[in-house]
Design a protein that fits this description.
Strand content: under 5%
Structural class: mainly alpha
Radius of gyration: 38 Å
Number of helices: 4
Oligomer: single chain
Mean pLDDT: 77
Low-confidence stretches: 1-6
């Protein structure tokens, strides 16, 4: 029994193979998007958005200028600067800064020591080796939560 030439154990697709169809679909989508972007309506929308954004920018600049020129706002800014200056000169602020600096320095020292320990080769005693007397546990005693009875 012989097979016809177009049947070589693969189903026939009336519109070609999947790869070609996907390629064609991609080309059609690209053409549609390009047409939409280049259309007069799309260009008009882009111009409208651009002019709207420009107008918003102009209005924001005018509002900021009005706020900066407002005598009440200027007075508030001056009072805020004075309060900040007084706070920076106060004993409590200086004490806080010194305490914070000492705390950060201690943290840095501990991090340096930690990094140094991490870089040392592993010297953890094996199960056969008794722990040395100069090592102290970093945590308290271990308390068993489950009983051995079952």
């Amino acid at each position: 029994m012989s097979q016809p030439e177009n049947q070589n154990n693969q189903p026939q697709h009336p519109h070609g193979d999947l790869g070609n169809e996907l390629r064609e679909l991609g080309q059609q989508l690209e053409a549609a998007v390009r047409s939409a972007i280049q259309s007069d309506k799309a260009k008009q929308v882009q111009q409208d958005v651009a002019s709207g954004m420009k107008e918003i920018g102009t209005q924001l600049q005018a509002a900021f200028k009005a706020i900066q020129e407002n005598p009440r706002v200027q007075h508030l800014v001056e009072r805020g600067e004075q309060a900040l200056g007084q706070a920076q000169q106060s004993k409590a602020a200086q004490d806080f800064q010194e305490t914070l600096a000492r705390g950060i320095a201690q943290l840095n020292d501990q991090l340096v020591a930690f990094v140094a320990r991490m870089r040392q080769p592993d010297t953890t005693p094996s199960a056969d080796t008794p722990p040395s007397s100069d090592t102290t546990p970093t945590t308290g005693e271990t308390t068993r939560l489950e009983s051995d009875q079952q």
